[in-house]
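Hey, I'm writing a tutorial for new members on how sequence and structure tokens pair up, and I'd like a real worked example in the thread rather than a made-up one. If someone can provide the structure for the chain below, I'll link this post from the tutorial.
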Amino acid sequence: GTPMVGIGGGHYTPRFSDVALLHEACFGHMIPKYALEHLTPELLRSALEHSGAESIYLHRKGMPKSAVTRWREWAEAENIAVVSSQELPKRT
């Protein structure tokens, strides 16, 4: 699957599990909503590099709109893809 870093959602990040089970996706790191206050661009860059990911998945319903905007804009500025589940091929 496509390696990515997941951002948002609950402690056990069930949305990322659903995406990984149903689509060609795998998550090297998952950053739940409660950890967003500690997430910095440097930490996210490190998570991407250490997992070999070149994209992020934002659980838009599982995080504040301001955080979605912040990390989407950061990703665009850093040339990092923001992937939605509709863009990922389904597992066969």
